[in-house]
Amino acid sequence: MVEWKLIRFTKVEGEGRGNDRMRAFNIDLNISDIRKTGNDLRVDFSHRVDYGDDVGFIMLSGFLLAGGKPSELRDIQDKWADKKLPPGFASDLTNAIMFNCEVNGVLVTRVLNMPAPVVPPQIGMRS
């Protein structure tokens, strides 16, 4: 099983355009590279939230280190050569990146006076 050892942001960019009335936002998560670094896999990513032309955007870029059994890490790297990832790993990776980017994105948007880039959970009650 893969374990997440570290997530580090290397670039933060944003622009608030003065209108904080958000109608919707789009999130673009891009995995640009996966490569072996020592006994770990390094996953380079960028996470961009676009609020629309009149509100602004934020982008966080960085990398995540994943550890695990050498055979498992080799399998992930081999699949990445074809720009594919094992479904379980892809899901866990996406969740790890999204969680960290949403939490840190809140801080960035506060400085820019923009709405937080968090999708609120839908809660329902049963009778």
Break the fold down into its secondary structure elements and pairings.
Elements: E1 3-16, E2 26-37, E3 40-52, E4 56-67, H1 70-80, H2 87-111
Antiparallel strand pairs: 1-4, 2-3, 3-4
Reported for the largest beta sheet, the result is:
4 strands, antiparallel
- End-to-end separation: 39 Å
Structural class assignment: alpha+beta
Q: Uncertain spans, ≥5 residues at pLDDT below 50?
A: none
From the coordinates shown, what is the CATH architecture? Roll
The gyration radius over C-alpha positions equals 17 Å
Strand percentage: 35-45%
The CATH topology turns out to be Bacterial Protein-export protein SecB
The helix/strand series, from N terminus to C terminus, equals EEEEHH
Question: How many domains make up the 3D coordinates?
Answer: 1
With strands numbered from the N-terminus, the spatial order across the biggest sheet is 1-4-3-2
Shape, principal axes of CA atoms: globular
CATH class: Alpha Beta
Helix content: 25-40%
Helix count, per DSSP? 2
The whole-number mean of residue pLDDT values reads 90
Q: What's the β-strand tally?
A: 4
Concise description?
This protein has 127 residues and is of the alpha+beta class.
List keywords for this structure.
28% helix, 2 helices, 40% strand, alpha+beta, four-stranded antiparallel sheet, Bacterial Protein-export protein SecB, single chain, 127 residues
What do these coordinates show?
- The protein is an alpha+beta fold and 127 residues long.
- It has a single domain, classed as Roll (Bacterial Protein-export protein SecB).
- The chain has two helices and four strands; from the N terminus they run E-E-E-E-H-H.
- It has helices at residues 70-80, 87-111; strands at 3-16, 26-37, 40-52, 56-67.
- It has a four-stranded antiparallel β-sheet with strand order 1-4-3-2.
- The longest helix is centred in the C-terminal third of the chain and has 25 residues, at 87-111.
- The radius of gyration is 17 Å and the shape is globular.
- The N and C termini lie far apart (39 Å).
